[in-house]
Amino acid sequence: MASDDDEECGYFYDDDDAEEDAAAGLGEDPAPPPPRPADCWAITQESLPTAQKQDLTTVMNLLNIKQHQARALLIHHRWRMDSIYDCLGKGQERMLRDAGIVLQDNNVMAAAGSTTPWRTMTCNVCFEDFSMGVFSTMDCGHCFCNDCWTGHFCAAVESGKKQIRCMEVKCSAFCDEDLVRRLLSQKYPDMAKKFNRFVLESYLEDNDSVKWCPSTPNCGHAIRVGTGERYCEVECPCGLSFCFNCMAKAHSPCPCIVWEKWNSKRVDGENIKWILANTKSCPKCFKAIEKNGGCNLVRCTCGQCLCWLCGGATGGDHTWTSIAGHSCNRYKEETRGKSLDTSREQMLRYKHYYDRFKIHGDSYNVEKQKLGVTLKEQVMKLELDLKRPLAIRDGDWLTRAHRRLLLARQVLSHSYVFAYFMFGGELRTRPQEQASLAVARNLFEDHQEQLEQHVEHLSKVLAAADLSAAAELEIVRQKQNAVTISNTVARLCEDIYKCIQEELLTLLVEHMSIAPYRPDGPDKAKGLAA
């Protein structure tokens, strides 16, 4: 039979039902299909050439151009293949010209190649005569001696350039990077290595789809996401989850701009809490007053006297036993009305949202550390108990339920940040949308309240889970309960995301967006093989 706790929460499981569920595959509720995960890869220094080669090969095959030309085109478009495809529709020649790419003139190159190697020629940079064998010609057809090219390459690399242009005046053609490497390595091998490093790092520095993991100290991973995945949250192999758009810690369903405002606001959070705890508002001018003496009759700088015990206005005189015109020993229902100053009301409002933000954040830390360790031990013991059937030994459902609990805690915590700014006039909404805002707010707060209730229920269920010595049917019952509630929690989280993205953010003057909801947390970056 079900426990009293289950009956109180509206969940009842009968032994006969459990037997039927066990025969039918442990009776799991079907969870909603998860959204498509982002194309997310973790790149190391070793796998960087492989990652770069993938995009280079795609462009080289698509346009039939050389590697250095493909690199120049990709850098021009911030390594965004969608941008290249869009521009390709306007014509390949125009696209290459806009990127500063000059295609090789086959007639010029053929003429240069047919010249006798021992024939002498004057370099137009140093004005020395050399045999044709020590001259090199770029795609644009400009030809100079190798010593002058090498000096030009050295100067460019020293200045930090990863794309080197022809040294002919007013020529914008990019030099062949293979030729740059070959000439530099002959005289300046260290400079050639530096150039190679610049070329590789351009994939990270000039790429909108690749960013370094913001871990401290740096873990050495760069994360690459698919084109169009700007608003997403990813988990680096080092374990850090972060927003790919703003590089802050994962903060959905709160938009990046709002999260930045909140972090700035939190700097003053301790001051606000101190003011609320240690000051009273003058009932006349509404300024904050700090008491620095023992007497509870306080006089404001505006001349108004007030009782420090209740904050009410009083007369200016008092005897050993009473304050003139005032008595507050009897409890009365507080009626703030217009007597509370606006600034103090704003501080109380901030404290309301901050407290809930922090409480759910603290619960997340406890449930991740203490509860997480306990559940992990139970799952390990269950999986190692070879006396039980294989289906019973599978404890993945408990791990998944715990993961969804942690995610829901973060969603709740961050939802209060969003609510503080959305419903306090901090974000500009279109004037004609005030009625829609009121309706959307009720919907949001209803989703938030339901999620809060089910998260507390799930936390209670997982904290009470005991699988080590439980009978098989009891494990089935606990699994059904945890799976059902965790699926409900996931659905409610998704409802909050949809409400914010589709009902609330659409009312704002400034465009904002949030990362899509993932029921099992941020997308995990897969390691890219070297």
Number of separate strands: 16
Tell me the helix content: 40-55%
Largest sheet: 4 strands, mixed
Q: Structural class from helices and strands?
A: alpha+beta
What characteristic shape results from the CA principal axes?
extended
Query: Averaging pLDDT over every residue, what do you get?
Result: 83
Query: If you compute it from the alpha carbons, what radius of gyration comes out, rounded to the nearest whole angstrom?
Result: 34 Å
- Helix count, DSSP H or I runs of 4 or more residues: 17
pLDDT under 50 segments (min length 5)?
A: 1-32, 333-339
Strand order of the largest sheet: 6-7-1-16
Strand percentage: 5-15%
Ends apart, CA distance between termini: 56 Å
Function: Might act as an E3 ubiquitin-protein ligase, or as part of E3 complex, which accepts ubiquitin from specific E2 ubiquitin-conjugating enzymes and then transfers it to substrates.
Region (Disordered): 1-38
Domain RING-type: 119-332, 123-166
EC number: 2.3.2.31
